[in-house]
Amino acid sequence: MPTAPLRLSAMLRPTGLLGPLLGGLLACGMAQAQLDHSFYGVADLSWGRFEPSGLYRQHRFNSNSLTASFIGATGSYGFENGVTAGVTLETFYRFQDLRTGRNDHDPLLSRNAFVSLAHRDWGQVRAGRLQTLLFNTTARFNALGNSVGCSPAVRHLFAAGSLIGVQGDFYWDRAIGYTAPKFGDVTLSAMAADGDRDAPGRLSALNAIYARGLLAVSASWQRVRLDPEFADAIREQASQLGLSYNAGWAQVFGQYTLVRDTGLQLTSRIASLGLSAPLGPGKVQLQVARSRALGDAVDRRQQTWSLAYLHEWDSTLDLYVVGMDNRVWGQTVGRSVAAGVRYRF
After folding, report:
1. What is the mean pLDDT of the chain?
2. pTM
């Protein structure tokens, strides 16, 4: 009886090749009794006033003011021919709700969840649920890192709605990613994914990072073409340049992102600057972002700045206070402030 060919999405489903491959890699490592493994994560808990522009303020606990809280586990097995097989499983956690995931719609393994094969001379291939390359560079080239809660660079690009920034999630399911061996000071990466049943299509991305000494530069490109069943088609392309430089007295950051959405007939431009400098027993982190989305019937502008002070209690524990001023033209000003603790393990 003939069998149907496997698509990328079918191969990466837990019931497809991904599940058996995970089990096979773990069984192989356990059988050889040489499986390297580790457990890790971040616990970030703060209390404060949170007020997005145009919305009411809330006084509450939060789990992602500086870094989204998550737990993870990874295992790897190195073969004699230099190939290393690995498994990474991670999930976000919300202390304020005592639930996993960033929201109730996230899957159980809501952060990275993939299998990988790596070789020093060939690079690394990953398959499963992957963080996008565009999010990686946005987080790396701004003073507040991957803080979705308070980083203006991250919020404008990934959490400002469908007009400014990119649509959809910054984690792609049914994805395959490849990182080439480092060529001098340059690292090249590529990524592709299938849409889901309700929004079929294709997602793709490329990224290049140059890092030498005190200077690092990035160039990222992302394209999303999806056809949702009950919404307009998404035809979106994003390009980004990023830069960081350690001047000794401070590390400075810069980003510029251009997003063209032909489906919504919109073009948005996002510029962001940041600085991280030591001050007393801790350090100050400042990040500013300014955005504008233009279309046939749209002219939306947004400006956000955030200021944080971190005190490194020890190598794993940080105490912090962070404030954010968020302004969308035509809406009320949003002002947020929080104090919290971040623990890495």
Report:
1. 90
2. 0.88
CB 164 within 8 A of CB 270: yes
Rounded percentage of the chain residues whose pLDDT exceeds 70: 90
Residue whose structure tokens are 């947004």: 302
Cα separation of 168 and 198, whole Å? Answer: 13
Question: Exposure string (b/e) for 75-95, b if CB count within 10 Å is 16 or more?
Answer: bbbeeeeeeebbbbbbbbbbe
CA distance 168 to 205: 14
> Which phi-psi region, left, alpha or beta, contains residue 342 (left: φ > 0; alpha: ψ -120 to 50)?
beta
Report whether 134 contacts 170 (CB < 8 A). yes
Task: Please return the burial class of 27, using the count of CB atoms within 10 Å of its CB with bins 0-12, 13-18 and 19+.
Answer: exposed
Which residue from 38, 70, 98 is spatially nearest to 343, judged by alpha carbons? 70
Could you give phi then psi for residue 27, rounded to 5 degrees? Answer: -65, -40
pLDDT of residue 8: 52
- Report the alpha-carbon distance of residue 241 to residue 138 in Å, rounded: 9
Amino acid at residue number 222: Q
Cα 233 from Cα 199, distance rounded (Å): 9
Phi, psi of 8 (to 5 degrees): -55, -45
In whole angstroms, give the CA distance from residue 176 to residue 146: 22
Nearest CA among 252, 326, 260 for reference residue 289 = 326
C-alpha 62/C-alpha 95 separation (Å) is: 7
The beta-strand segments (E) located in 58-122 are: 58-62, 70-78, 84-94, 99-100, 113-119
pLDDT tens figures, 63-74: 989 999 999 999
Residue 17 has pLDDT above 90, yes or no: no
pLDDT mean over 274-289: 97
How many Cα atoms occupy the beta-carbon half-sphere of 121 within 13 Å? 3
CA dist 312 and 70 (Å) reads 20
**Which helix (H) or strand (E) covers residue 9, if one does?**
helix 8-12
In one letter, which amino acid is 334?
A: G
Region 299-320: mean pLDDT is 97
